[in-house]
Amino acid sequence: MARQLDVFSGGQVIATALHTEMQQSYLEYAMSVIVGRALPDVRDGLKPVHRRILYAMHELGLTPDRPFRKCARVVGDVLGKYHPHGDQAVYDALVRMVQEFSSRYPLLAGHGNFGSVDDDPPAAMRYTETRLASVGNEALLGEIGDATVDFVGNFDNSQQEPVVLPAQLPVLLLNGSSGIAVGMATNIPPHNLGEVVDGLIALIDHPTLPDEKLFELIPGPDFPTGGEIVDTRGIGEAYTLGKGSIPVRGVAQIEEVQVGRGRHRRQAIVVTELPYQVNKAGWIEKIAELVSQGRMDGISDIRDESDRDGIRVVIELKREVNPQKILTALYKQTALQTNFGVIMLALDNGQPRQMPLRDLLLQFLSFREETLTRRYQHELTQAENRCHVVDGLLIALENLDEIIDILRNAQTAARPRPNSRSSLS
pLDDT digit string (tens) for 159-200? Predict the structure, then answer.
């Protein structure tokens, strides 16, 4: 009969209260998700998966002046070297960095089908190709080799990866970020490059610049799909407190369109811009559903005339219908007007912190100052080392005959020894 193992007698079991163990384990899990996946770093504005994709592409040499490479190759390098998670999660993150309707300033350039504003899925990674965009290559990776940031070992210590990229632009504000962690979430809107740079320059020149002056330079978000912000009170709350709600409307005009081949014309609502992250196909489907249910009268036809030049959705109206009334109903009952909930939450020294606009800008300026200091110190060290070598070469030239004599009279070719009378000893 097999001997029974007694694990309780040797002090191998530590008695722990259930609520204490659950609390500690849950906190460790939560911090792992917060730091390692869901929230961006306030310095470079990137989550770990985005940072690893960009660095892996930098190592592959996929600069804007080089040919495109299959996305499957990039995803494979990211998985094998830095990010041991699912390949579909990495590819989804890569796709969003290519999509012009998701990022205000895409960090990657792509060839192939990367999805659409209608929420069409992208092609498989074996069909699409990518490389670094100019803004991603220059603003995030241009100084990566100048000892500007620290490197750490990857998951198996076989490779080195950067803790943070030496960002030259505040990508966190330019492209925004969204993510759901454990017990917290972030949702930062994208902004205009020129406005953000003006705000940074103003803070450099006047660190105590009042919020009113700063908000004049950065008046609000700049969404890649356009739209109109109809109430600025939410912007003030978001920029001052780090949290707020911004109502955004699509851009629509009332026009007369020709119906069929005849000369008869009807009034129509033409939508050319949609709020950020609104699915165009789903929005059109919602309008058709409201019409079929009788909850929205006065619409005779809906046509999607969008093309590569932009969005154009034509909503034909029935005769003797007030177009403004229909437009108001569209704002109220559909996603043509939505509220963008702003939560400016990011990692500051590894800790999640909700920050107003001023703090986000100051944190970037502090990081930029640190990277520049490290870069110039690295260049100074290189110059000092080179100067030391050059000084040695000059001494050798001044005593060239004596050095030749030492080499000729050496005991072995590998071990020349100067004489005791040598001035070089």
Answer: 999 999 999 999 999 999 999 888 889 999 999 999 999 999
Please state the domain extents for the chain: 251-335
pLDDT of 418 > 60? The answer is no
Answering whether pTM is above 0.90, one says no
Which of 297-302's residues contact partners 24+ apart within 8 Å by CB, and which partners? 297/321, 298/322, 298/325, 298/326, 299/326, 300/266
26 is catalytic: no
Q: Which residues of 277-295 are buried (b: 16+ CB within 10 A; e: fewer)?
A: bbbbeebbebbeebbeeee
How far is Cα 300 from Cα 138, in angstroms, rounded to an integer? 51
CA terminus-to-terminus distance, the chain: 80
The Cα 164–Cα 80 span in angstroms is 20
Q: Which CATH number fits domain 251-335: 3.40.50.1000, 3.30.1360.40, 3.20.20.70, 1.10.510.10?
A: 3.30.1360.40
Tell me which residue of 278, 276, 256, 259 sits closest to 267, measured CA to CA: 256
Q: Point out the catalytic residue in the list 26, 55, 91, 127.
A: 127
